[in-house]
Amino acid sequence: MEPELALVANIFLNGLVYHRLVFPDTVPFDELAHHFQKMFVSYVKALNEGGDRSK
Prior knowledge:
By secondary structure, this protein is mainly alpha-helical. Helices cover 75% and strands 0% of the residues. The protein has one domain. The chain has helices at residues 3-22, 29-49.
């Protein structure tokens, strides 16, 4: 996994855990995890559509 992608994955997962700890009764965990998954997949797709950014 590219370092940038690993960092973004870490941010998304930390956000998921943080939200669950701070607001445990607002949204069911499965729904929240699904929302974070959609956000992460959208980011990865956008990153891949941008082509090679290492140049």
